[in-house]
């Protein structure tokens, strides 16, 4: 790793020689909240390596409902798996928290993957991490109560933001978790009364991290361990 490499943790894992293959193609872009970086079924033009902020990977139903299957940030790549395959996005990718990212065109991404076994293998392992995220989300959303799911979601958001204060509305939380807003309101109020979070309109502050970890199911820890085992990144 070189000090000149971007703060994305995947890029920092590349040896300097392999990163230098990528360097000419990378451009730093702003991640604006609500921007779609990919739409399910559409051909992707770019791959993104977030430096900061977070991107929600969501799936939608024809009735208009949606649910998040993974939250990606500085420990991830957005669009890498699709770029290695047919270039078609398997799900929607929407900027949730603003930040910045290194961006490159799919053709350049594929050229570097063809030239660098280290880069290609890292991207394949990241796809395994994505699968672990999706599988654990399915399990969690099916079996665990809203309180535990909300705590897990907030822990992941904190991992990516390095901040106890998250710019979130209850509407956004409900949408990401695929539950009704009143369910989020009831759970958020309970967590606030317990002194675990402080909620004001459009903002959630984590007050007691240990209590939030206790409230969460073990899905957060399971995915973090899987991430570390496959890629070696620990938050």
UniProtKB/TrEMBL annotation:
GO terms for cellular component: cytosol. It comes from the Bacteria. The keyword Phosphoprotein does not apply. It holds the Pfam family HTH_Crp_2. Keywords: DNA-binding, Transcription, Transcription regulation. SMART domains: HTH_CRP. Signal peptide: none annotated. Residues 144-210 form the HTH crp-type domain. One of its GO terms (molecular function) is DNA-binding transcription factor activity. InterPro entries: cNMP-bd_dom, cNMP-bd_dom_sf, Env_Response_Regulators, HTH_CRP, RmlC-like_jellyroll, WH-like_DNA-bd_sf, WH_DNA-bd_sf. The keyword S-adenosyl-L-methionine does not apply. Residues 10-123 form the Cyclic nucleotide-binding domain. This is Crp/Fnr family transcriptional regulator. It comes from Bradyrhizobium betae. The lineage of its organism: Bacteria, Pseudomonadati, Pseudomonadota, Alphaproteobacteria, Hyphomicrobiales.
